[in-house]
Structure formats: C-alpha cells, structure tokens
Amino acid sequence: MNLASSRWKTKLFFLKSLPLAVFARLRVEYLDEHRASVSVPYNWMNTNPFNSSYFAVLTMAAELSTGISCMSAVYKAPQKRSMLLNNVVGGFFKKAKERITFTCTDQQAIYVATQRAKTSGQWEEAIMETIGRNAAEEEVAKFTFTWAIKVAT
Q1: What is the CATH number of domain 3-151?
Q2: What pLDDT score does 5 carry?
C-alpha cells in the first residue's frame, strides 16, 4: 500500500476513507518504513480569520503523517490488526502561511508495537512525533501521537 507512489491512488483512498483530506488538499509526499511526509497547502479553504492555516487542518495533516505508517504496519501484518489513536499533544510555534509539510521518522515504534501486540494479544502503544515545517525549514508545529495496535479478534 504505497499511497505516495500515485496521486490518483491517494485521492481514491481519501475519497473512500478520509473525504476531509480531499477537501483540505492533503498530499502524501513520501512514505516508506523509515519516514512519512504529508503536506497541506495554505489556501482560502484552510485559512482562519487570523490569516494562517486553521489548526484543525494542520492537525489533520500531522495525524496522517503518523497514521499512514500505522496503516501500513497493519496492512503488512500477517494477522489482522486494529489501530486506535489514544492521545494527541501538539504545539504551534509560527503562523502557517504557506504549504506545511509534516514529517514523521518514528516508524520503527509502530512496527515494534505491532510485534508486541502479536505476542501479548493486548493493546500496545507506539508514540510517534511529527514536525511541520515551512519551505524555509522553520518549525511551525510539532505533534506527538500515541497510537495503539492490537491483534483483531
């Protein structure tokens, strides 16, 4: 399931499973077992009254940059798995007035949690951090998502 390989595959997946991602124009820029990047444009649909990207749109892109790795781990697992978002902590440091790209490099945490879930049969957590940067590589926002994985029964 490499959504970064085709914009059409990504749009079809979003239409089926995440229609708000289509509306917000999220884009999967890169995805492999080490890194995932998702970007969101700055445009009239995503703008708040303070002339920056609305926090919910930024949070959606941040969540997808971690969640897409979780989906990939679940998809690749030999047994069916369930995934659940348990916690979100975020901070905003600069106005988002251009395309922001969220990059997560904590993919190994989800693969470890997937293996632990296979052994324990319980919900196992993975903590994944993603950082949103603008074109100048300035940190605009940072989020930590706690995902839980369990072997589906």
Answers
A1: 3.10.129.10
A2: 64
Q: What is the pTM of this model?
A: 0.90
Identify whether the C-beta of residue 55 lies closer than 8 Å to the C-beta of residue 139: no
Give me the amino acid identity at 71: M
Retrieve residue 32's tokens: 């492999």
With tokens 């079809």, the residue in question is: 12
Rounded Cα–Cα distance for residues 115 and 19 (Å): 31
What are 132's strand-pairing partners?
Answer: 102, 141
Domain ranges in the chain? 3-151
Could you tell me what percentage of the chain is helix, strand and coil, using 3-state DSSP and rounding each to the nearest 5? Answer: 40, 35, 25
* Residue 104 near residue 65, CB atoms below 8 Å: yes
Q: Are 151 and 121 in contact (CB under 8 A)?
A: yes
For residue 11, what are its two tokens? 């749009």
CB 29 within 8 A of CB 38: yes
Token duo for residue 46: 């995503």
Q: What is the pLDDT of residues 14-53, one digit of tens each?
A: 888 888 888 899 999 999 889 999 999 999 888 989 999 9
Cα separation, 4 vs 29, whole angstroms: 6
